[in-house]
Amino acid sequence: MLEKIISQGLKATGRRMTRTRKAVLSLLERTHEPLSASEIFAQLQEDQVAIDLVTVYRTVNVLKDLGLVAQLDLHHEGQSRYELKEGRKHHHHIRCQVCGKIVDLLLCPLKKLTKLIEERTKFVVGDHTLEFTGFCPQCQ
Ligand SMILES: [Zn+2]
Ligand SMILES: [Zn+2]
Ligand SMILES: [Zn+2]
């Protein structure tokens, strides 16, 4: 799947897929949680990829511009997280208040509400955020 993501990125922009970008994409692919830049940095250091934190920030932003990575700003967290877009449509998240574990909720229950809002306000709704917090099975 990673090769597909990379070739899509290349096709989209004609930009070079650097080793750093590949390393970040492959890390995000094998992670099942959205990662912050500092978590990406720590994990890549563990994997002995030569990189600094500034480069991580720059890389995730390039990958975001390429449409390969989605940025996630969870309430009260004060830092952005990043996850692969591939294979995930618009979706929501639940975060454990104790350990911070984040799980994808691969659904959106807001279609009806969106329609209602458009009818009431005459707005065309673009985006929305919805996030859940609670206690994961390990922390209950
Ligand atoms: Zn937990
Ligand atoms: Zn997600
Ligand atoms: Zn939604």
String of helices and strands: HHEHHEEEEHE
* End-to-end CA span: 35 Å
Please give the radius of gyration in angstroms.
17 Å
How many strands, what sense, and barrel or not for the largest sheet? Answer: 3 strands, antiparallel
Portion of residues in beta strands equals 15-25%
What is the mean pLDDT? 88
Number of helices: 5
Q: Which ligands are bound?
A: zinc ion
- The assigned structural class equals alpha+beta
Say which CATH homologous superfamily of the largest domain is assigned: Winged helix-like DNA-binding domain superfamily/Winged helix DNA-binding domain
- CATH third-level topology of the largest domain: Arc Repressor Mutant, subunit A
Spatial order of the strands forming the largest sheet: 1-3-2
Number of domains: 2
Annotated CATH architecture of the largest domain: Orthogonal Bundle
Polypeptide structure, described:
By secondary structure, the chain is an alpha+beta fold. The protein folds into 2 domains: 1-88, Winged helix-like DNA-binding domain superfamily/Winged helix DNA-binding domain (Arc Repressor Mutant, subunit A, Orthogonal Bundle), CATH 1.10.10; 89-140, 2-Layer Sandwich (Dna Ligase, domain 1). It is built from 5 helices and 6 strands; from the N terminus they run H-H-E-H-H-E-E-E-E-H-E. It has helices at 2-13, 19-30, 37-46, 53-65, 111-121, and strands at residues 35-36, 69-73, 80-84, 92-96, 102-105, 131-134. The strands form 2 sheets. The protein has a 3-stranded antiparallel β-sheet with strand order 1-3-2. It has a 3-stranded mixed β-sheet with strand order 5-4-6, with no helix packed on it. Strand 4 and strand 5 (102-105) form a beta hairpin. Helix 2 crosses helix 4 and helix 3 packs across helix 4 (53-65). The model has no long low-confidence stretch (mean pLDDT 88). It binds zinc ion (ZN) (3 copies). The site of one zinc ion (ZN) has 7 residues, from loops. Residues 34, 83, 88, 91, 93, 104 line the site of one zinc ion.
